[in-house]
Amino acid sequence: MQQTELERRLREARDCEAWVDAAAEFFAAHDLVFGHGTDNAGDEAYWLLRHVTGWRELDATVPPPADATSRALVICGQRVSTRKPLAYLIHEAWFAGLEFRVDERVLVPRSPLAEVIERGFEPWCAVAPGDRILDIGTGSGCIAIATAHYLPEVFVDATDVSPDALEVAAVNVKRHGVGERVRLYRADLFPPGGQRYRAIVSNPPYVPEDEVAALPAEYRHEPAIGLASGKTGFDAAERILRGAAARLAEDGVLFLEVGAGAEAFAATHPRLPLIALEFERGGDGVFVITAAELREFLRSA
Asked: What is the pTM of this model?
């Protein structure tokens, strides 16, 4: 489908469903790759519709306004010509039901850890008022901010090695009004000092460095520093695993995401009782382990 055909289909759409179907067919016809907030053309087309209509309530029995269609046509053209994720084109991403400002300085939020945060880390961790949570590799700040949102009586420290990423995170912290409870640190994994945390949460880089160049174009628009992590992809995860024991409270818990390499990561630590989490909304590659289990593992390593 060419742009002219897309324009005709959108402007002649009898209702929102037909409009979304046309945009989805256009995306599919150009072999776009999804995975930055959606995993298919239909969901991405619907996200685009909601964006260009300002996320207001829509009458699904009629087509979107003409001005919304005009804006959508521009974005659709950019999506195909640049292969940038939609989130970068509209500077908008959603995580745990919250909207975040994003651009090419940070990865697009998409971690299944959102479900863990929405449940207040239960049943894996009993978080109490006044507890501190650490988010390692915060990027846009989505994990830290969502934690502060769903647990309004806790304090969150968030680290990133990238000053550019921390600029984006600061914008989102201000946007969500959590500046009194979310502190941002430029640090390589752990913040300075000896603060201990009830939970440490991390979605670190986990792509083998020699595989980044072969990723689909959409992923190569993201900052490489947020994707690549050494020869195996596990450099950051290994350092977090070995450093977390000293920074967790006695009954603390580590939540660590390693993506598609989860099985390989677990195989390298056969004596470590990693529990792989399952998610209602899809996604995998997240392990949970207690501070006590970590310390026992490190003693016998």
From this structure: 0.95
